[in-house]
Recover the amino acids of this structure.
């Protein structure tokens, strides 16, 4: 797997840097959902530290946990492509972004300090190259779960995922 990651992801993957911003002055009510419960379809998702809390993850045991990324650190989550390569041994991380009581507390502090109320986060979605074949690699190919992850080109897999959530687009439009 190391060779595939080194070559395909680093040099050939259709990576996406996706900064997002949310105006908490307007959308800072507790319970406001910015990104509902989901997994990412890519290889790895690298979350930078956000200016306001709100990102929660689910652990393998089903426990929900609000993330606290220390200054100077990143949160790296597994996406569906790494799940495919490991026959489910490394599962895609479920997560969401919602305004919580910690977010509203941070809003109050920012107002007192006359700081911006924009929740800004920068996320990098690292992908396997579109023409690389996703399939369980190495000893993962011997897993009893390997048959749930049949060989498929990464680009085709991404298209299927996007179609499943109605984001594929219409080439005729």
């Amino acid at each position: 797997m190391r060779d595939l990651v080194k070559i395909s992801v680093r040099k050939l993957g259709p990576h996406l840097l996706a900064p997002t911003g949310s105006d908490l002055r307007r959308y800072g009510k507790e319970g406001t959902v910015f990104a509902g419960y989901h997994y990412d379809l890519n290889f790895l998702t690298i979350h930078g530290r956000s200016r306001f809390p709100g990102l929660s993850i689910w652990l393998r045991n089903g426990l929900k946990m609000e993330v606290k990324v220390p200054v100077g650190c990143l949160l790296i989550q597994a996406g569906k492509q790494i799940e495919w390569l490991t026959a489910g041994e490394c599962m895609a991380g479920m997560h969401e972004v919602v305004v919580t009581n910690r977010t509203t507390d941070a809003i109050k502090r920012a107002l007192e300090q006359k700081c911006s109320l924009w929740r800004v986060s920068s996320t990098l979605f690292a992908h396997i190259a579109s023409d690389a074949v996703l399939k369980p690699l190495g000893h993962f190919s011997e897993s009893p779960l390997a048959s749930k992850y049949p060989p498929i080109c990464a680009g085709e897999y991404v298209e299927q995922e996007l179609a499943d959530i109605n984001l594929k687009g219409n080439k005729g439009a």
